[in-house]
Every structure is written in structure tokens, then in C-alpha cells.
Amino acid sequence: MIANSSSPNTPLLWHTLGAHQTLEQFQSDHKTGLTTQQVAAHLKQYGPNELVETGGRSTWEILLDQFTNIMLLLLVAVALISGGLDFFDWKAGKLDPGEIPFKDTIAIFAIVILNGLLGYFQESKAEKDLAALKKLASSRVRVIRDRKTLEVDSKDLVPGDIMLLEAGGQVAADGRLLEAANLQIRESALTGEAQAANKRVDADLPPDTPLGDRINLVYQGTEVLQGRAAVVVTSTGMQTELGRIATMLQSVETEATPLQKRMQLLSKVLVSGALGLVALVVIGGIIHLGTGSWKELLEVSLSMAVAIVPEGLPAVITVTLALGTQRMVKRNALIRKLPAVETLGSVTTICSDKTGTLTQNKMVVQLLHTSSTSLRVTGDGYAPTGEFAPAEAQTSAAIDPQEQPELLNLLTACTICNDAVLQQDKGSWIILGDPTEGALLTLAGKAGFEKDQWASKLPRVAEFPFSSERKRMSVIAEVIDADPALVDSPSHYMMFTKGSPELILERCTQIQVGDRAQAIAEAQRQLILDQNNQMAGRGLRVLGFACKPLTAIPPEGSDEASERELVWLGLVAMLDAPRPEVRDAVARCRSAGIRPIMITGDHQLTAQAVAEDLGIAKPGDRALSGRELERLSLEELADQVEHVSVYARVAPEHKLRIVQVLQRKNHIVAMTGDGVNDAPALKQADIGIAMGITGTDVSKDASDMVLLDDNFATIVAATEEGRVVYTNIRRFIKYILGSNIGELLTIGAAPLLGLGGVPLSPLQILWMNLVTDGLPALALAVEPAEPDVMKRPPHDPSESIFARGLGAYMIRIGIVLAILAIGLMSWSYGYAHANLTAEDPHGDRWKTMVFTTLCIAQMGHALAIRSNSRLTIELNPFSNPFLLAAVFLTSLLQLALVYVPFMRSFFNTHYLSGSELGICLGVSALMFIWVELEKLAYRWYAKTRK
Ligand code: ATP
Are 302 and 384 found together in one domain? Predict the structure, then answer.
């Protein structure tokens, strides 16, 4: 099929071919595109349009990273020292008969390896999941195929496809321009050049033109900053320029969250603490106590070193964050950067766009005004069926639009100054493109206007595209066969302009009355503004329309000068109903201490009406317009920012200022955005949120989170999940670290009490930290939300993880656990020595009793810690079945350590009689009771303070 030497595998010379020649290479056509059969054949020949990711860490790097963890290194040191001790015993023949030498060493190494592998699997799965999730947000591309415009997944593009580009999109494949209007493309991903490149169709380029100067081609991965274009795809997938240098692809971001970073720091502190303690015990033991041998002191220190380090914690945190992102995606919030999960929990302000996020973005035109008529329009959705009737009349005395020249011109403007496509899909009417423009096509359709018919009468020859800054757009059409009412001077071209009514009106000097244009009077201007305000005050979205006859096509970039002296045509108002779930979401925000703010490009009155309806604006709240905002200094804005809940008619750069000022006031800001120019504000915000459906690729790239359904309620749901994750992390941190403190104190007390021997061996401690603490901790990570999770104020993100009583709780609970264990230890030591048995000739089973008590007490702790304020009997025991299963399984395993002989000999435990086990269980139960009593005391305290 490809005759030319420039096959898709050597995409070097496409720039030397003309548009027609390029189309011929693929037997494609600019207007009709490829046929379905051609697409299938090309897909088979060239494969899907996908890049093979080569970025990110290699398997080895991920694996090796696991073993650089300082806690694992400490364990390795313990294993080696303990191996050394065993070695001397073994050499001196001091091992008990049947005892396995180097048991601790082997077990610790096994655990180190297991932990490393577990970490490796978790991390590589997390990277893969994140990559897969990112693909979920993969972009859709507009193409022409089989004479129709449709949207396809970018991976389904094939060479020869006619791809349509518009501002904000990322170019999904390499291609040759067929048509371009004001096209500006940022190619920094490819050439490193930050400056936007102006592209042109008719450039004649020599073969040796460097990549950055090939202005008739567009490249995959680059961004359309401005304008529109039609392109024939020349290469896809790995054959594109980007594919050829695919290593440049952004690697998946697995940035550590602030909490993970703090925990890494904490483990360093704990490890240094452990080493310090070892030194202290050894020195203290030698100088003061004089008890035991060197070896015994060393064993105590080794056990203490293992006890202080929460070996299971990093894994549990990683799993919790990963589960959090999974839960969020189920609720339509796609996390792109892991730290966002945590930051979400501390958001204090949500700045949201209006259109599509708070409202449904399903526009239906309801009213229109021309110079002499005011009409209401009937009909629902995008179906072009409905009638025009006088706005004031109660009856639906339908009028014929064909008899109203003003209306005809207004509807012509609606059709021509429009980039959307209205079409039928499986019986229902859908739009491709901007819903505002879709609604205008539907409106025109109700009067029998079809866009296709106009293409031959008034073909588009140039345009000044829409942008949120300009708040307007113009299309210049060649007049080939138009209604005489449209043109009252011998012009060859007609410009149609639409946009924000105030702005369009400012640029008008004439108004169409009947089939004539006449100078616009001040009273007419005032009437139009009044009509605009009146409709906007009802929450309607209003657009103004104008036209201008031209004798020549205006040059590119002359919009400021050309869009002047326009002829006013009329106003069109559409209803964009609020999303029904948003009102409730706003109320939830408020009770959670989060302030919702609306930032919109729309009219102030429209914005205020919608904001009041949804509960975003409270009585007394102010609305600020973009113009007012511009006049304020940062300091002045900072004074007002707490009272403004609506920002209207703002441009994207205003969003950046708003975020900065809110952040200055110590707010944690989540900010939505969809356009190219929203990217800086999204980056600046603590949580940048892009729209999954209507958002541009550029905004998605700059965001931390993508809303798959563009819905405000999803932001609130994600915040709730963020809070649940953070609460659960805090919960298992206090659970795990409390236990570590208890173990540490118990071990340290043994030599102080003059008991010969260490109550817990390193192996037993590892067992506790990883299994009996680890499993319930994992189950606590999936604890469902507490009912008050959205009734509390957000936590301060700079607060220490130990803030709000967590540190005190940990120490308190550690001491309680230690008191129970030490109490039992002092009694059972004497008891075991006084009651020697055949299985325990040396009276060592006091150690097993301490070990069992510590483990089982932690089971009670796990059950009780599910809620901070509600008693366990007040909770539904089955609302976290994982915890029940973990407690059951762990208790069973613990009993196996005592009652299964080979486990006993491996873990150096002793058989316990029924009454001895009963005593252990009884003492353990005290732990559960203590935590429940604490809750009662807390409740009583909270009540008396009220
Ligand atoms: P939000 O910022 O909440 O999404 P918005 O859609 O009104 O609201 P923009 O898309 O920035 O924000 O639009 C700003 C203004 O530009 C609109 O209020 C409207 O007056 C005008 N406008 C919007 N879409 C078009 C369009 N396709 N053509 C011409 N003017 C438009």
C-alpha cells in the first residue's frame, strides 16, 4: 500500500510530501476518512496505537530497593550477632539436645527475605496498578471515518485516519496537516522547546528540515495549545517519533506520601533508639546489676532491638494506601499521585468549576431574545424537536421561524459559529464536542436547520477560536448561497461571533431589526443587558450573538481588531440543571468543615443563582468577578477570600491567584480544572483535580486526581475516603507501636527484676510483630468509615502523626500492656519454678505464658480499637469480617505454637496446662477491658466539657 520510501517504519520524509500525496499513501480522503474495512486492515498491518512503556524502575531496582530499608538491615545485624552467639555455643557443645543451631539466624533471614519479597510484590503491583489506572483516563480522539465524525480511543487510531485536533488535546499519533486554524503546538515533550510552534498546512520543506521545524507535521505526545486542525495520521504506536524515543515517556509516579516519608524517618529514629538501648542495657547491666552473663545481656539487647522496630508497619501502610486508591476509583476518583490519598483527608477548601461539575452540562435552550421578539423554546435533551412560542404567552401559539428574519440570522449564527456535531446514535440524539454548542445545534434543528446543509452555502474559511480568556469565538464563512436577509451589503464573507453577552455587546455598533442592520441605541443596549441579567438571575447560561459582513478574510491573530463594529443578533439562554447529588455533597462538605467555592467563567448572576440553589453561597457571602479580582492586590484579596464563595467571569490565570491566596491563609485547597490554561492552578493546588470526560489531556497531566464522572460529589466522596485511610493508618500505628512499647518494657524489666533469662526471643518477637500484630493491623486498614468521619473538621496536614493524643495513647497502652505482662511474669516465674513438670524441667514456661499473654492481649486490643468512642458491643461485629477472621486465625496460630510439638520446638515454647492458659487469657482480657473503660472515660469527659 505504501509506495513511497517513507513507510511508517521510517517516518522521516513525511514533511516533504503535500497533503494530497500523503492522503494517497493511505488511500484516505480528507472529507470521508477511511472506511471501516480499511481501518480493520490498517489495524492488522500496523497494530494498535500504543507505546511500550520503558520508563520506571526495573524489576531489579525495585527488588534491591527493598533491602536498603534500615529496619531490614537492623534485622540482618541481629541475625548475624545471634548467629555468632549460636556458633560459640555450638562449638562449646552447649546446645540442648535436639536444638536446631542457628535457628534464630535462619528464621530472621527468612523473614528478611520474605519481607523484601513482599515489599517487592506490593510495589511492583502498585506500579502496575497505577499504570493501568492511568490508562483508564486514556484520551479519546475525534476522527472522520465512513463520512462520519466520531470519537475513538486513541489506541484505535490507524495510519490514514483523519484526526481532528482542538485546543487542550494531546496529539495521539504523528500526522500531516490537512487543515489548520491558528494552530499552536507545544512540542517540548519531543524537542525540549518550551515555545509553542505555529503550524501550517502549505509549508514546502526540504528533506533535511530538523524535527522542530517541520511545521506541516504534528507529533504524538505534543499538546495543542490553540486552534483547530485536521490531520491525516502517518504513524502510530512505536513507529511515531515519540515511540522511537519511548524511554522519554513519563515513568509511573510512585512518589512516597508525606506519611510514608515520615515513617521512613521514624524507622531511622527507632533504629538509632534501638542501638542506643542496646548500649544502655549492656552498660547498665554490667555496671549496676551485675546480673547474668555477657551473653544474657546481649540476648536481652538483641530482643529489645527487634522489639522496638515495627517490622510490619511499612507493608501495612503501603497496602492501606493501595486499597484506598482502589476504593476511590470505585467511587470514580482516579488517583494519579499517591500522596493525594493522604492530602485529600486534610482538604479545607474545594474550589470547583460550575459547568459540568456542579451542573449536568446537558444544556437545553429555553429562551431567546432578538431586537423585536422574545421566544421560549420547547423540547427536551438534544433531540431537535420542539417549537418556538412567544415568551410571555401562556398558550403555545407556535410561530414559524422562517418568517422571522432576525431569528433566522440568529439561528444561522448558532449553526455556523459552532464546532460541535449533533448526530443520532442508536436512536438517541448525542453531541460530540461542547454541550453549549450542542444545545445551539439542537435549537437550530428545531427550526429545520442542519449543519451539513450550510457547509455548501456558507463554508468556513477562517476562525478566531474560543478560549476561556476571550470568552467568545468567531467563524468567518464564505457567502456562496445565503439568505438575502443575512447580508445587506455586497460582501463576500460573513463573520459570526458568539460569547459572553456583555463582551459581545460592547463590540457591537449596530443591531439587526427586521432584515436591516441599524445603529444600536443606548436604550436598546440597556434592554439587552436587562434581559441578560434577568435570565442569568434565574441561573440560565446566556450567550450573545453577532455578525459582521466582510470583504476579505481577516488575517490570523487579528481578532482584537476584527471582532469590532459587529451587528447584534440576539441572546440565547440555556438551562444547565444542577446535578441532583451535589446539594447533598455540599451539605456534607460543610459538616466536614470543608468550604466549597464556585469558580466559573459564567455570568455573575448565573453563578450566584446556581450557588445559592446548591447551598454553596450562604447569606452574606460575597461574589467577586474576574474584573474586580484583577484590581485587588494579593493582600486585599487575602482579606476578602474567606467571605467570597463565588468567583464569576474569571479567566484561568485568576484561578492561580485564588489558590495562592487561599494557601497563604493556610487552607489546603482542592481545585478543579479542565482547560490547558488551568494547568498552573492545578499544579499549585494541594490537590489538582482534572475532569475525566471534558478535561483536556494537558489538565489531566497536571493533576493529582482525575474525576472519571466530572462530578463534584465525587470530590467529596474522595475526601471521605482520604479521611478513612488516614484514620485507619493512625489506628493501626497506635495498635502496632503500642504493642512494641509493651514488648520493649517487658523485656527490659526482666533483668531488672532479676529473672534469669529473656522472656521473649528475637524469633518470638518477630512472630508477634509480623504475624500477631501484622494480620489484625491489615484488617484494621479496611475498617469501614466511622459515622462521624464527615462531621469532624479536617486534620492539619502538618500535624505530627502522633498528634491529637495518638502518641500519649501509644505510650499509655504500651505501659498497660507491660504492666499486665510484667505482673504475670513476676508471678509466673515463681509459679513455674515451684511447679516443675516433665515437659518443663527447668521451670521455663513462664516465658511462654508471657509470650501468649502479650499476643492474646493484642487480639483484644485489636477488637476494641475499631472505634475511638463507641464500645465494641455498640459496633456491628460483622462490619469488618476481616478483623474477626484475622483475630480468629491469629489466636489459632498462637495456640498452635503452644500445642503443636514441632512448632513448640522451633519457637522454643512450652506446653501450658488448661488453667495456665486460662490465666493467660484472663490477664489478656484486662487489656480489652482497659481500652473499653478508656472510651467510657473519654465519653464522660466529653460530656462534662459540653
Ligand atoms: P466553568 O468555568 O464553570 O466551567 P464556563 O463554561 O462558563 O464555566 P468557560 O468555558 O471558561 O466557563 O466559558 C466562559 C464564558 O465564555 C461562558 O460563560 C460563556 O459566556 C462563554 N462561552 C462558553 N462556551 C462558549 C463557546 N463555545 N463559544 C462562545 N462562547 C462561549
Answer: no
Read off the amino acid at residue 873: I
CA–centroid distance for 499 within its chain: 32
Q: What is the mean pLDDT of residues 531-544?
A: 95
Judge residue 533's burial from the number of C-beta atoms within 10 Å of its C-beta, 0-12 exposed, 13-18 middle, 19 or more buried: middle
Q: DSSP character for 459?
A: -
* Residue 475 binned pLDDT confidence (cut-offs 50, 70, 90): very high
Side chain identity at residue 71, one-letter code: M
Instruction: Flag the least confident range among 91-100, 470-479, 692-701.
Output: 91-100
Residue 269 or 416, more confident: 416
Task: Give bridge partners of residue 768 from the DSSP assignment.
Answer: none
Is residue 176 in a domain? Answer: yes
Instruction: Residue 570: give the domain boundaries.
Output: 362-577
> Does residue 174's CB lie within 6 angstroms of at least one atom of ligand 1?
no
Give pLDDT, residue 604.
92
Protein residue with least CA distance to atom 13, ligand 1 = 601
Per-residue confidence band for 249, with pLDDT thresholds at 50, 70 and 90: very low
**Winning range, highest mean pLDDT, from 166-170, 331-335, 483-487:** 331-335
Nearest Cα to 419, choosing from 405, 403, 436, 404? 436
> Does the beta carbon of 498 lie inside 6 Å of ligand 1?
yes
On whether both 30 and 87 belong to a single domain, the answer is no
- Looking at the CA of residue 434, tell me the nearest atom of ligand 1: 27
Judge whether 3 lies within some domain.
Answer: no
Q: Are residues 450 and 539 both part of a single domain?
A: yes
Q: What is the DSSP string of 176-201?
A: EEEEEEEEEEE-HHHH---SEEE--S
Q: What sections of 564-670 are H helices per DSSP? A: 582-591, 604-614, 626-631, 634-640, 652-664
Q: Among all residues, which ones are annotated catalytic?
A: 353
Domain end point (choices 81, 97, 126): 126
The pLDDT, as a whole number, for residue 235 is 92
Specify the ligand 1 atom closest to the Cα of 437. 27
Residue type for position 692: G
Q: What average pLDDT does range 287-307 have in this prediction?
A: 71
Cβ 672 under 6 angstroms from ligand 1 = no
Beta bridge partners of 570: 545
pLDDT-above-90 percentage for the chain:
43
Average pLDDT over residues 250-272: 68
Distance 409 CA to ligand 1 centre (A): 22
- Determine which residue's CA is closest to atom 4 belonging to ligand 1: 355
- Pocket of ligand 1 contains residue 649 by CB under 6 Å: no
Question: What is the 479 CA–ligand 1 centroid distance (Å)?
Answer: 28
Q: Are residues 161 and 303 in the same domain?
A: no
Does 568 map to a domain?
yes
Alpha carbon of 408 to ligand 1 centroid (Å): 24
**Cβ of 600 below 6 Å from ligand 1:** yes
Give the number of the atom of ligand 1 that is nearest the alpha carbon of residue 498: 29
* Structural domains in the chain (count): 5
Sign of CA dihedral 865, 869, 871, 875: negative
Please check whether residue 811 is in contact with residue 741, taking contact to mean a CB–CB distance below 8 angstroms.
Answer: yes
What confidence score (pLDDT) does residue 7 get? 44
Considering only 260-274, 320-334, 614-628, 927-941, which range has the smallest mean pLDDT? Answer: 260-274
Question: Same domain for 182 and 98?
Answer: no
Task: Return the residue whose CA atom lies nearest to atom 1 of ligand 1.
Answer: 600
- Of 658, 679, 710, which residue sits at a domain end? 710
In this prediction, residues 71-83 reach a mean pLDDT of 83
Q: Whose CA is nearest to atom 25 of ligand 1?
A: 499
Judgement on whether residues 349 and 388 belong to the same structural domain of the protein: no
DSSP label at 804? T
Tell me whether residue 16 is in a domain: no
Ligand 1, closest atom to CA 500?
Answer: 20
User: How many angstroms does the Cα of residue 471 sit away from the middle of ligand 1?
Assistant: 6
Residue 375 CB: number of other CB atoms within 10 A?
24
* Same domain (yes/no): 471, 564: yes
Specify the CATH number for the domain of residue 889. Answer: 1.20.1110.10
Residue 598 CA, closest ligand 1 atom number:
3
Instruction: Determine the pLDDT at residue 110.
Output: 82
Q: What is the pLDDT of residue 159?
A: 95
Residues 880 and 865 in one domain: yes
